[in-house]
Amino acid sequence: MLRTLLLTLSVVAIARAELCKPDAQNAFKVRISIKTALGDNAYTWDANEEYLFKAMVAFAMRRYSRKSTTQISNVLLCNVTDRVSFWFVVTDSSKNVTTVPGSEVEAAIRMNRNRINNAFLLSDKTLQFLKITSTLSPPIEPSTPVWLIVFGVVLCLIVAGIVFLVVSGIQKHKKKNKESTERENLEEKVEVTLENGIPCEALDLKPGHINGVFAADDERFTSL
């Protein structure tokens, strides 16, 4: 009985080893750059970090499939290097000797990429799933609602238009009054006042000048 149990466990271990190896079916390679991301605050990648990684992958699978069947033991790591790179696969919990299709694993990782990055204080550039494309960061929502920004812009344009119309109207009114005043002054200068049918400007009233009309009358009546 004991020999049978040991044989079974060894077969399972060999099968699981065959499931997780470089370029195996449904396997993914991970490369982590802790020193690049955190500098002097970098932590050491050890068994605890591996356990956390397995837990995060199991969490991603459970959240993606909405099933509670995936366990930490279903996530297998292999070929771990000192420069922190390794391969992993997710085994099928019902059979435990086959892997979950890579498309499902990829979808689960992409769906929970930010949660996984945050767990290790890393980003898409320092925690790389080489066969899984980086996800776009969620759009930053402005603190002010968009409709309020649009309303403010439109209101500013309306106010600017009203101010422009008022200022231009005042300037036109001032210009019109100035032109009217200048026209009146010009008319006063050009206007010729007639007195007794003779233009006043035609009369030269300089001191000592004798009007020819009265001069003729004086010659007729004063000579004796």
UniProtKB/TrEMBL annotation:
It holds the Pfam family Collectrin. The keyword RNA-binding does not apply. One of its GO terms (biological process) is positive regulation of amino acid transport. The chain crosses the membrane at residues 146-170. It is found in: Cell membrane. Its main location: membrane. It comes from the Eukaryota. The keyword Transmembrane applies. GO terms for cellular component: extracellular exosome; plasma membrane. InterPro entries: Collectrin (IPR042944), Collectrin_dom (IPR031588). It is a single-pass type I membrane protein. Residues 24-224 form the Collectrin-like domain. Keywords: Cell membrane, Glycoprotein, Membrane, Phosphoprotein, Signal, Transmembrane, Transmembrane helix. PROSITE patterns: COLLECTRIN_LIKE. Residues 1-17 form the signal peptide. PANTHER family: COLLECTRIN (PTHR46884:SF1). This is TMM27 protein. It comes from Anthoscopus minutus. The lineage of its organism: Eukaryota, Metazoa, Chordata, Craniata, Vertebrata.
